[in-house]
Amino acid sequence: MTRSFFLLLFVSALAAGLSCDLLPTPSGPPPFEPLFDGKSLAGWEGDTRFFRVENGVVIAGRLDSPIPRNEFLASKESFEDFDLRFEARLLGTGRNAGVQFRSARVAGSHEMIGYQCDIGEWSAGLIWGLLYDESRRARMLDEPEQGPLLKAVKQDGWNRLRVLATGPRVRIWVNDFPTVDYTETDPSVEPTGRIGLQIHGGPPAECHYRNIKIRRLRYIPQGVGGPDN
Predict the structure, then answer these.
(1) Which terminus of the chain has a lower count of CB atoms within 10 Å, N or C?
(2) Is 131 a member of any domain?
(3) What angle do CA 151, 155, 157 make, to 5 degrees?
(4) Is 223 within the bounds of a domain?
């Protein structure tokens, strides 16, 4: 009786182990992919008079002369739902740049159309991490109070930015400070598109971009929603 009992326990445990091995394991969030290799503009296209690579940094613009018009370095690939991370800083007299996403080149123009995570300042204050609709509605779609933003931004140094785009919802952080939580209500707005590094037309300026990486999402995995992940 005792021997049969222990034999039954052994067979049950073995079966349970085999069953566990056959069960699918939950998959975690997909890994981040570098969008910039730190050495070249491979995977991007734009006017190389205004975009170059130095010391692991994409430099947009120039400090020795004015920028005649908006210029964009656009990714060759398009993205839909994603978690985009990068660092940026501004140098020079001009104080305006940004990163396009879910965007496209405008046919016959130097412009791009789509969402922009803004960088810099304007007459109303800082625009770091604000959501602008470039060449479409041509206005800010969402922005935070200036007081907390001023405390979060390093105006003369590197700033960490994050853009989380899932379905109609767009969220942005600057140095872990949430600046945007916007939900698109216009069904005509495309939920996919290219990424573009901008330098704004105007006085001499450079925007430096580095550590550009993206995680493709089909949904919001648990633990991806906040700035600490």
Answers:
(1) N
(2) yes
(3) 115
(4) no
The structural domain count of the chain equals 1
Give dist(CA 50, CA 58) in Å, integer. Answer: 10
Q: Which helix (H) or strand (E) holds 214?
A: strand 205-216
**What's the pTM?**
0.84
> 228 in a domain, yes or no?
no
Domain limits for position 207? 32-216
Q: What is the pLDDT along the chain (229 residues), one digit of tens a residue?
A: 455 544 444 445 444 444 444 444 456 778 999 999 999 999 999 999 999 999 999 999 999 999 999 999 999 999 999 999 999 999 999 999 999 999 999 999 999 999 999 999 988 899 999 999 999 999 999 999 999 999 999 988 999 999 999 999 999 999 999 999 999 999 999 999 999 999 999 999 999 999 999 999 985 545 555 555 5
Cα–Cα distance, 15 to 48 (Å, whole number)? 63
Q: Is residue 6 part of a domain?
A: no
CB within 8 Å of 193: residues ≥ 6 apart: 78, 79, 100, 101, 102, 103, 104, 114
